[in-house]
Amino acid sequence: MSVESIQAGNQLPNIRPEIHNYESRPSKPKQTELWTLLIIVAVCFIGFLVLPMILVIIRSFTTPGGAATLENYTTILSRPEFARSITNSLTVASVSALVAVVLAFLLSYTINCTNVPAGFKKAVALLAQLPMLLPTITYGFAIIYSFGKNGLITQLIGHPLFDIYGFNGLLIGYVIYTLPTCFLLINNSFQFVDKKFIIVSHIMGDKPLTTFLNTVLRPLIGTMAVAFIQSFFLAFTDYGIPTSVGGEYDVLAMTLFNQMLGSIPNFNRGAVIAVFMLIPSIISIILMTVLERFAIRYKQISQVDLPKGKKRDWICGILSTVTLVCVLSVFLVILLIPFVQEWPDHLGFTFSHIANLFTDSQLTQVFTNSLYVAVMTAIFGCLFVYAAGLVTSRSKLPAWARRSVDAISAIINTVPGMVLGIAFLFMFSGSPLQNTFWILIIANIIHYFATPYQMIKDSLTKMNAGWETTAKLMGDNWIKTLVRVVTPNAWPTLLQIFGYYFVNAMVTISAVVFLTGARTQVITTKISALQHIAKFDDVFVLSLLILVVNLVVKGLIALATRDRSKERAKEAKKARAAVKTPQVAAAAAAVRPSSQLTAAAAAFQLPNDNGRHTRNMITSAVSAVVVVLLVAFGAFSTGAAANGGKVVIYTNADEEAVTAFENALDNNGYKDQYIIQEFGTSELGGKMLAEGKALEADMLTMSSYYVDSAQERNHMFADLTDVHSKLLGTTENSKAPAYRSPTTAQEGAIIINTEALKAAGVEAPKSYADLAKPEYKGLISVPDMEGSSTGWLMVQAIVDAYGTGDKGKQILTDIYRNAGPHLEQSGSGPLKAVRAKEVAIGFGLRHQAVADKKKGLPIDYVDPTEGNYSLTESVAVLDKGANTNPKAQKMAGVIIDKGRQELLQTYPTPLYEGEEAPSNASKRSKSFPKPLTVDLLQQHQDFSSECKRIAQNEE
């Protein structure tokens, strides 16, 4: 008899004869509790997933005005880059998922099937999960600062190991990103593989490969396939990593990002891409159903000593060490850069970056918010996932009911967090959930449901299926069985799920970036705002803070779930010794139950740890107290947000501008009467267009063309009544509408790294036309105006100076060709590349280069001969009718009338009568001859896209 047949024989049949007879009686159990759980789970999914996604699908078939159309689909499908992005996404996601699964299996096998030291196993288990403790928004930065031309690892080795942009960078980022999820799934399933069959296989003389395939790989094949699917979709839907290192390797998530968060957000066309990203879910649902056949259920999990194998242990130990060193080396810079003055130019040690952030009261509030959201997500996420797992794995409900939950889990895998956030924005704008912590918590629970659900499902499925039936025979009800038997055995998995939800709630951004309000901002949205204003040192500091918090939580969970088998073995040994005494043996015989009940009780596998009951009671009590306190805190915070009476100001402005706003308001009687919430331009633009008058803000400062677009669509702004300064008679500013008034003018300029330029042996360019010269190939970085409005400044200058004909088209095409993989999707991307010496020349905002030069960095700027064109940002007041805050108009007036003097020092373009240009003003300031409208932006974007396609096709 082979070990395979023995193993199969140890599976619990689907319906045992005695259970079948019991269930065939007229008193068939109704499973009321499980039906109730199913209804709760179903209602939650319908309200927080199905209906919001239906709204997204409807958007894909409508125009912005609401009319039905197929134009969105024809427009997207007609683009040649769309098919290319699909192919690229499928390729890189599949390869990265395969690599991640193989590496996760190696690490899990080392922990569970080798005799390497216990301390080494614990270290592997902890370090394998380390990447998930960091926000993915920092992954791209970490790769660039590690493997870039001047990265930490590159400098240690002496030369770049490989090109980090395109497929290579995405593969590295995706593998690191998805490895922890694969590891959690596979390692969790390993705990429910009965290892006694490994011993049996050895005894029967099977070859090592046969033993491995039959006793290790076969029981895990279903989980590994699920891990591959989940890893694939995590990579398939991620946009944070491609934003930094995607280069010219277009992926579908970036196409979605540009539609949803680009310079011209188009939710309707973005919904089309989201629909296409949902199509693979159909395949995954079918695969999930097929994979159920591979599940192996054991009556009992045997704790046995594994056979000795020094060669096996050494090989697995070395390979696991190499894997973890390669993965974690990428994140060394996150531990290093917060303590360096300026990387890579001033490497002196400093605490100033950390000290500056921790003295910021706003950061303290944001950090508290993040902890609250993470803990509440973990608590309620555990309860929700446990309920869903019980329905599908510990019930005899109809197959359609159980499979429906599996199907929902598969669908959630394919829903990008950004799309889910947008769907929530559409669904709950104007509802009581808007701008509360609860909408963030619910979004996180839904977004990250799939992996915890698979973890608890694997755990519950591999437990003995006869426990509930045995409980009925012994007179226990379902709830008592759940509390006394199922939950204690599932407790380690539940704690891991708690950690998974907590960590992901701390690091997520895509699902919540549109949903945070002035009092509910979390730390990752702060990181996003810092990224947009080029505060990269602060990004690493906040990432380090998140890492420390998540390490503490994971450490506590690891402590709570540590293996106590040795302790239990000692207690069992003592108990057996006690039973051998004549007195105890006689007493045991006198109270011994019938053989039937003895067998039934044995099937329970009740924990024999005498302290477990006490620990469970303490844990339950502490959990209850925590829930009560956190719910009370959430209610208090939500109430405070609604009744504070302060003016809420939304802004996309840089730190210098926000400081000027605050100084003007504080010095003119409005101190502590306002709250400023910072957003990236795209995120705030999305909220404005989607929420309209339901926006939480009372006033905002934002790119002028965005304000105009939102007003045209939503009629959401009131005419300004308290701005007394008069605009200069320039072409653009003189036509500013009554509902907004410009706060700053953001000028573009050529930015250079003097050291990198010298190393490259080329002269500094003097114009945009110079950037098209062949000697600058591979040395420049410019923003793609499809992803960032900053790129519009350069395109404006080229169009005005050379037109959109052959000459202008050739210059812009050659610039894009020279930029290659450094055609960035964010306005701050080129400055980041220039600072890190990835390139010598970039295009960006002039005032940021001025600030870098003032700090002593090897950064300089060139005012191009074509002129410094600008985009204005404006202040506007929300028209909320009777609910309009009367202070908003007065504060808007103060920002313009009293704040412009300070703003001029950073943004040196005069906008109002009586203003004089400071000494750092550009000498070639120009305004575009046409009003800067969204229609004009679309025309220039089409021109830019055509040039980009030509450049990429020629490459």
Polypeptide structure, described:
By secondary structure, this protein is an alpha/beta fold. It has 4 domains: 99-254 and 309-349, Orthogonal Bundle (MetI-like fold), CATH 1.10.3720.10; 358-413 and 425-561, MetI-like (MetI-like fold, Orthogonal Bundle), CATH 1.10.3720; 647-742 and 873-913, Periplasmic binding protein-like II (D-Maltodextrin-Binding Protein, domain 2); 747-872 and 932-954, Periplasmic binding protein-like II (D-Maltodextrin-Binding Protein, domain 2), CATH 3.40.190. 62% of the residues lie in helices and 7% in strands. Strands 3, 4, 5, 6, 7, 8, 9, 10, 11, 12 and 13 form an 11-stranded mixed beta sheet that branches. It has a two-stranded antiparallel ribbon with strand order 1-2. α4 (71-77) crosses α14 and α5 packs across α16. The longest helix is centred in the first third of the chain and has 33 residues, at 80-112. The chain is globular and about 90 Å long. The model is unreliable at 1-27, 584-611 and 639-643 (pLDDT under 50).
